[in-house]
Design goal:
The chain has 1 helix and 9 strands; from the N terminus they run αβββββββββ. The chain is of the alpha+beta class and about 130 residues long. It folds into 2 domains: about 35 residues; about 80 residues, no CATH class. About 5% of the residues have low confidence.
Length: about 130
């Protein structure tokens, strides 16, 4: 095969590949606008019957989806992190909470394992997250 024919085929393949991928590129680049939102730093402590709860994950749900989580330390303290943003903090809003337990964690009543039955709602106010 001649060099010229080989080069022509390379350019044709590149052009067809770009033509096929361009609708996807336009869809992703002109999708929803990226509005910067400030995360609110959220820390706290979870206790049950006066004792700190540990070896569990506090999960916040919004609209039926996990929105934030925080690992409970030995003293029951936690720091929430957003499920969407790769940073500490949580978007402001109203959440329903539940606890995800591990095998090594303490036993809690079953109602705390689902956000539908826990009865815990948390309102997170707008705040500023400084690095």
């Amino acid at each position: 095969m001649s060099y010229h024919l080989h080069r022509t085929r390379q350019w044709t393949a590149w052009f067809l590949g770009a033509l096929v991928l361009s609708p996807f590129a336009l869809t992703f680049s002109f999708g929803s606008p990226k509005i910067p939102q400030r995360l609110s730093p959220v820390t706290g402590r979870v206790t049950f019957a006066g004792a700190p709860v540990h070896d569990m994950t506090l999960c916040l749900d919004q609209g039926g989806h996990h929105a934030a989580f925080g690992l409970l330390q030995a003293d029951g303290s936690f720091q929430l992190s957003s499920m969407i943003w790769a940073d500490w903090g949580t978007l402001p809003g109203r959440y329903r909470a539940h606890l995800y337990t591990y095998d090594s964690g303490p036993a809690l009543p079953a109602r705390f394992h689902s956000s539908d039955t826990s009865g815990i709602e948390i309102e997170i106010a707008p705040g500023y997250f400084c690095k």
